[in-house]
Write a structure and sequence with these properties.
By secondary structure, this protein is α+β, with helices and mostly antiparallel strands. Helices cover 25% and strands 26% of the residues. The structure holds 1-S-(carboxymethyl)-1-thio-beta-D-fructopyranose.
Length: 421
């Protein structure tokens, strides 16, 4: 068990980083520092820098359904998170033109909750337009061939809002958060008698932070700081954009379920207050290969909407909400995740470096775990390793050949055509 007064350094103030700081502070660790390269929380490069994210528990792998259920319970009851959780329900399906893979993924997701007691009476099958209208009367498009199911026990969280609230909370609990603190290198000690040990980090600004334990929570940027992570993680991005609704339109769409057609993409109810509606395009995602490894691109490089994403977003709107299909798409950009070879998180000690822990591999399903993920990372710190095989370091796996649940082809950023907006 580590001495709770000794310094712990968390590098990266995104979802996993803040959650770790929170759980360490709750467990009475008194010397926790978070370094975040952005000048705000959430940082501009964090995947959590978003108006909303899906909160759902259907998973191909039911192991995560139980964790998501625990997270939903925190989202619903913990005063830090509760104001940002909206249980609007989740309409999950495929459009009439969906490929077989999307249909297969859908059926496996439904399986994970169909017989689960927590969802008894909360799922209804959607086979016709009338079924959809029952779940979401405000969707007025043809929705041709849309099938799937409606799950009332799910919804979304206001991502940036929840991050800001958690930031406030960890500061109140005594965590130091340094903004604008990008690290240039990790610090190691090494001699003939001792093992290599990570003892802290140095920032671009030249400040040194010494610590007994260093936890890297860098999302899709992990490969830059920790090249030894190798091919088990592939930084991948997905595209999203917003449309501006009038107050009348926003009122009409208030409370609609998160609507996700697996082959096209998904949208949320308009953001309360602004009337902005977020729409994401689904697909195999985008990589950014540099010297054979995909790493998260810069904010500047990520500030565009791929042409294919525009097509999918407009198709989704045309089928569900035709009067909005030609609306200008605002703030189109791509959002970086750390995709793991088997979609399992990687939360473990880094082999060959004492005192260094990595928590990565969100695989696009990390944000909903904000209230609880830090507990798992604290466990690795306290047990000095990962007990669960699925979350161990696995550099023998290659994330570039592993995607068996998303349809489409992964594209390299260099080859992506941009939407002309
Ligand atoms: O856990 C969730 O419900 C998030 S799914 C959102 C998404 O954009 C995926 O659709 C995509 O395939 C990737 O995993 C990033 O996250």
């Amino acid at each position: 068990m580590p001495d709770k007064q000794r310094p712990v350094l968390i590098v990266g103030g995104g979802t996993f980083g803040l959650s770790t700081a929170y759980h360490l502070a709750l467990a009475n660790y008194t010397n926790v520092t978070v370094l975040e390269k952005g000048t705000s929380i959430p940082g501009p490069q964090s995947a959590a820098n978003d108006i909303n994210k899906i909160v759902r528990a259907e998973y191909i792998d039911p192991f995560y359904s139980d964790l998501a259920l625990e997270a939903i319970s925190e989202w619903s009851s913990n005063p830090v998170f509760q104001p940002y959780y909206h249980q609007t329900g989740y309409l999950l399906g495929v459009s009439g033109a969906a490929p077989e893979l999307s249909r297969y993924t859908l059926s496996r997701q439904l399986n994970s909750i169909q017989k689960h007691p927590a969802w008894a009476g909360k799922i209804s099958t959607v086979k016709t337009r009338d079924d959809i209208k029952k779940a979401a009367p405000a969707l007025d498009g043809e929705m041709p061939g849309w099938t799937g199911y409606f799950n009332t026990f799910a919804g979304y969280a206001q991502a940036a809002g929840a991050m800001q609230a958690l930031y406030k909370e960890i500061v109140r609990l005594g965590v130091k958060v340094e903004l604008g603190a990008e690290i240039s290198q990790l610090l190691y000690t090494e001699d003939n008698t001792t093992k290599k040990r990570c003892v802290g980090a140095v920032t671009m600004g030249g400040r040194t932070y010494l610590a007994d334990s260093v936890i890297l929570t860098l999302g899709g940027a992990i490969g830059q700081t920790l090249p030894s992570v190798g091919h088990q993680i592939l930084a991948k991005a997905w595209a999203l954009a917003h449309i501006q609704l009038t107050p009348e339109e926003a009122a009409r769409l208030k409370g609609i379920p998160v609507t996700f057609m697996r082959d096209l993409g998904f949208f949320f109810e308009p953001e309360p207050g602004t009337g902005l509606m977020k729409i994401s395009a689904e697909g195999a995602g985008y990589a950014n290969y540099v010297d054979g490894v995909s790493v998260a691109a810069t904010e500047e490089q990520s500030n565009f909407l791929p042409a294919l994403a525009e097509t999918k977003i407009r198709c989704l709107l045309r089928e569900a909400l035709p009067s909005l299909a030609d609306r200008p798409l605002i703030d189109g950009h791509i959002c970086w995740c750390a995709d793991a070879a088997d979609q399992n998180y990687v939360i473990d000690k880094v082999p060959g470096a004492e005192g260094l822990i990595v928590a990565t591999g969100d695989s696009g399903h990390g944000f909903k775990m904000l209230p609880i993920a830090g507990k798992w990372i604290k466990d690795v710190l306290e047990k000095n390793g990962q007990e669960l095989p699925r979350w161990r370091w696995k550099d023998h796996l290659d994330a570039s050949v592993s995607d068996r649940h998303r349809s489409g082809e992964l594209q390299d950023l260099k080859d992506v055509a941009r939407a002309r907006l």
